[in-house]
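User: Hi! I'm working on a homework problem where we have to compare a predicted structure to a textbook description. Could you give me the structure for the chain below?
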Amino acid sequence: MNVPMITVVAGVSGCGKTHWICQQLRKTSAAENVIYFSPGTGNVPIDQIRLNAEFPEVKVVSEQQELEFLSQLTGSEMVYIELGFYLELKAIEQILGNLSYQSVAVLPPHLEDSEYHVWAEKIVKGINIDTNITQNQIWRAPTIGQVIDEESLNEFWYELSHGAYGKVSRAKGIFDVADGRSLYADFVLGVPTIDFLELDLPRHLEGRPQRFSGLEVWGQKLDESAIKQTLQDCYLSDGAIAQYQEQVKQILNEETIQ
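Assistant: Happy to help. Predicted structure tokens:
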């Protein structure tokens, strides 16, 4: 088997691991021969969906395909494996066995003498986040089939990022909104909030979407039941979804005619 160039990327939460991988993909002309794998994300593969929307030619390996991962390396030129901070660094040995790889750590500029510095062959300066924050609670929820009013989503995201449901240090999600778009949301405590990013996916304007959507929240003393209930309160009914979709289709048709 011809082994591709394998790069394993690790670092603390919110420092910019996926962003750095996207930067590398933009520099290469052989993206159709690239594999991306991020183990441990379970049924909420937010980063995988975001990356695949921007780079549809990249082969994204799902959590369910981990056992077949090595057999999929044939024919690939490059492989990026992103280790979430919740995984031990030695977990990569269980995945790759004896295969060689380049280890890259994306870290805040002020962090020194960490386990990542010992492990990595290359250190990349990432976002200057607070590494003293303890993240001991995670809440994940797939929301496939749900459509959210964008105004309600903005209000929910503001509350989530401003402590209404506990001390949130990191939150990210992908949401289907009423006008058929798929939006990516990202929050890191201490980092200026950015607007939602529209993913390069077709507008869904026929009933409930079956593509992935979901939310992941890390923090302390999270009120999980309140997060769940508020999120559910943002969901639109079948009738409201149909009404919004009909309005958007009419607008798009009028723009096409003009």
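For your comparison, note the following. The mean pLDDT is 91. Residues 238-257 form the longest helix (20 residues). Good luck with the assignment!
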